[in-house]
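TA notes, week 10

Several of you asked for a full example with nothing omitted. So below is the full record: structure tokens for the whole chain, then the designed sequence directly under it. When grading your own attempts, check the secondary structure regions first.
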């Protein structure tokens, strides 16, 4: 008699776990977190737009690479 009660309890527990797992799988996934917007700047040498965090600031001007910064300084100095 005790064995039947234990088996019944285990069966009910397994069915409960099955339904909990099934109900979780039916929920839609949460939406992805929004990407924060960032200011865009233009390279003073080639006019390419790029995020401000990826740009190089020199003498109040933004550049897309060290090479363009150097070319602009060479042009200004000559």
């Amino acid at each position: 008699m005790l064995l039947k009660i234990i088996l019944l309890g285990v069966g009910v527990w397994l069915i409960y776990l099955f339904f909990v797992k099934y109900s979780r799988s039916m929920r839609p996934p949460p939406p992805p977190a929004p990407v924060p917007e960032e200011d865009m700047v233009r390279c003073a040498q080639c006019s390419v737009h790029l995020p401000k965090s990826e740009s190089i600031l020199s003498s109040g001007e933004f550049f897309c690479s060290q090479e363009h910064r150097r070319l602009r300084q060479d042009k200004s100095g000559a």
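Strands lie at 40-42, 49-51, 56-58, 61-63. Use that as a sanity check on your answer.
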